UniProtKB/TrEMBL annotation:
Pathway: Carbohydrate metabolism; galactose metabolism. It comes from Euphydryas editha. It is an enzyme of class 5 (isomerase). Keywords: Carbohydrate metabolism, Galactose metabolism, Isomerase, NAD. GO terms for molecular function: UDP-glucose 4-epimerase activity; UDP-N-acetylglucosamine 4-epimerase activity. Its EC number is 5.1.3.2. It catalyses: UDP-alpha-D-glucose = UDP-alpha-D-galactose; UDP-N-acetyl-alpha-D-glucosamine = UDP-N-acetyl-alpha-D-galactosamine. It comes from the Eukaryota. This is UDP-glucose 4-epimerase.
Amino acid sequence: MQTFKTIMVTGGAGYIGSHCVVDLLEAGYEVVAIDNFANAVGDEEGSPALERAEQITGKKITFYKADLLDKPQINDIFDKHEVDCVIHFAALKAVGESMQQPLLYYQNNLLGMLNLLEVMRSHNCYQMVFSSSCTVYGEPEHLPITETHPTGSITNVYGRTKYFIEEMLKDLSAADEKWNIISLRYFNPVGAHPSGLIGEDPTKEFTNLMPFMAQVALGKKPVLTIFGNDYNTPDGTGIRDYIHVMDLANGHVAALKLLSENHVKLKVFNLGTGKGVSVKELVEVFERVTNAKIPIKYVARRLGDITAMWADATLAKEQLGWTAKRSVEEMCTDFWRWQTMNPDGYPKKHETTVIVVNGKS
């Protein structure tokens, strides 16, 4: 089988994308990253996250500000580079927002993917790692969740876009055996690169738990809002499988290796730790790690939220040789390092910030 050299990363300036780019560069791949900055900080000049990924690795990234809805623009980028495989992260991803703006989500996530697949095919590039989600499982019928758990009975629009894309990939790989695709169903990515140089910097109000918690610990937000404390769980709060973003990044490198050595057609893997942690437990670990008190306000459950879910990641261990290695403490410690080094996230336009690492700027 072929050896991959150039990997295109869509959504490369985003939270998971930028961490994955670091891992790809360290594994010796060349990276062409694209992003439209719908969920990430940056502008025509580039992405602070990717500039820092270059700083961490000492390697160069080719970056284009581009939108998958602009097919000619994507076509031009493929004309310029011989892309061996695409890792497709680019998507709108806020559950709450998706319930309020379904058409925006269908247009961006589904049309974006269609355009990408058509451009890939016209450039004879048939290898892809797709960023899917445990939301495709809906409310779990059994725990832990294996890859054979039924999909499609989904509680939110964001999750439905991931499910529809998975169905699209099934049809595509059945119709044309040139395709070689791995779909990775992530559980709940948290944490940051241990350097503290890159991390999660939400650009929207619909924010994830850990950045929200860190803002409260820094005193930038008064109280952490937790949606629902009346779930049928030991402490009443929802249970999730939190996974360190660097473990998740390692999973993509493992997927690339499998694709380059085998023709799998279409394979699906869960990426999670296999352990469920409640929202309340995560807050307690975060408080312990940061020595900060985090005031909590419980409010009503959110439409579309699920009681409890955690992964059975045995298949990824057996076939990808991958397991999650980092603990919940490390997730919290690494995120707190990123947040204290960058209390306002990445420098926005017209700001210049020098981060000092080990006495060197």
